[in-house]
Specification:
With 238 residues, the protein is of the alpha/beta class. The chain has a single domain, classed as P-loop containing nucleotide triphosphate hydrolases (Rossmann fold). Helices cover 32% and strands 28% of the residues. Helix 3 packs across helix 4, helix 3 packs parallel to helix 5 and helix 4 packs across helix 5. The chain is globular and about 50 Å long.
């Protein structure tokens, strides 16, 4: 990374502690991490190693006990909840293991929701276009209960990419899918990321999923224990 380049995401000595009956529990023990704009980084580690906590801090959904998290050079700790919400609408997309679709909304309506919040003028056309890109052009009026798990994750991908965020945070996006369906969803995620040039931070415990990233950051007990460039071009496919 050039000395004059501002990282898309930067964590500076980030510590996260929680109160417990026996005293403070350290979830993150001083994380230093810089992610370049347009990069694809997988964060690996066992359950309880702090991966998802880090993702929540990057999204501004939680605040560190100490240290700084910056998005495009701007420190999140200086923003109130309204400004954090505005930042998320403008810059950050999410993909979750459990899809997080609203059950009372159709596939189209789920994708339209963040577009409406961001006041994007061509929201309806954009929602239909992204649903078509993920292969659901004929399922736009179906509710989540009428879709398979793989189809629900495709809707979630369309919803995440439709606002064209500069940063996408994915927490175990294939974790609730069978292997083949999960790899199909991963292929779509990688292809959409490549097309948009989106910075992607993906949390996973699955090495096969992480191998698609250009960089792997290994966590253990709240600390980075290894940070490696893979040299793999994910867009080339598995």
């Amino acid at each position: 990374m050039s000395a004059t380049t501002t990282p898309c995401v930067e964590c500076q000595n980030v510590v996260k502690r929680l109160r417990s009956g026996a005293g403070d529990l350290t979830i993150l023990g001083g994380i230093d991490l810089a992610i370049e704009s347009g990069d694809f980084v997988a964060v690996l580690g066992p359950s309880g190693s702090g991966k998802s906590t880090l993702l929540g801090l990057m999204a501004g959904l939680d605040r560190p006990t100490s240290g700084s998290v910056r998005i495009d050079g701007a420190p999140l700790e200086g923003l109130d909840e309204d400004r954090l919400a505005l930042l998320r609408r403008r810059k950050i997309g999410f993909v979750f293991q459990s899809f997080q679709l609203l059950a009372n909304l159709t596939a189209r309506e789920n994708v339209l929701l963040p577009l409406g919040l961001a006041r994007i003028p061509d929201a309806a056309d954009r929602a239909d276009r992204y649903l078509a890109e993920v292969g659901l052009a004929d399922r736009v009026d179906h509710y989540p209960s009428q879709l398979s798990g793989g189809e629900q994750q495709r809707v979630a991908l369309a919803r995440a990419f439709a606002p064209r965020p500069s940063l996408l945070l994915a927490d175990e996006p294939t974790g609730s899918l069978d292997r083949d369906t999960g790899l199909e969803a991963l292929d779509l995620l990688v292809a959409l990321r490549a097309e948009a040039g989106t910075t992607l931070v993906l949390v996973t415990h699955d090495l096969e999923v992480a191998q698609r990233a250009r960089r792997r950051v290994h966590f253990d007990r709240g600390r980075v224990v290894r940070d490696e460039a893979t040299g793999f071009h994910a867009e080339a496919g598995r």
